[in-house]
Design a protein that fits this description.
The protein has about 130 residues and is mainly α. Helices cover about 95% and strands about 0% of the residues. The chain is built from 1 helix and no strands.
């Protein structure tokens, strides 16, 4: 059975109509997909902005905590340094007090020896010079 010219023309029109409808539907689907892509992109941008804001807030909080811990650490370190300085000064004072007393005693003894040496030197000069000093 072969198709008549009318049948062929009808089929051709039917195919053209189908192609037109299919092309329109493809255009509609493309349009909807483009709109959805735009919406998704906007949502993604909004989510990215929110995420950046949260990250910035968390970064600020972390920086504040780190600064507080650094301050506390510095305070503890200063306290330890002060304790060490106090201990060193105390020990130096314990050592220096007797040493200073010894130095004073030695200095006094040296002054006495110097005076005695001077007196002896004067006596020797007088004896050598033949003068009597009484």
């Amino acid at each position: 059975m072969s198709l008549t010219e009318d049948d062929k023309q009808w089929m051709s029109q039917l195919m053209a109509s189908f192609q037109n409808r299919l092309a329109e539907q493809v255009v509609q689907v493309e349009h909807r997909l483009n709109q959805q892509a735009i919406q998704l992109e906007e949502q993604l941008n909004q989510q990215t902005i929110k995420l950046e804001e949260r990250l910035n807030q968390q970064t600020i909080k972390l920086e504040e905590r780190l600064n507080q811990q650094a301050i506390q650490l510095e305070e503890r370190l200063n306290q330890r340094i002060e304790r060490v300085e106090t201990s060193l000064l105390t020990e130096f004072h314990k050592w220096a007090s007797p040493a200073e007393a010894r130095n004073r005693t030695i200095s006094a003894a040296l002054r006495a020896i110097d005076l005695e040496m001077e007196q002896l030197s004067d006596r020797v000069k007088r004896l050598e010079g033949g003068t009597t000093a009484q």
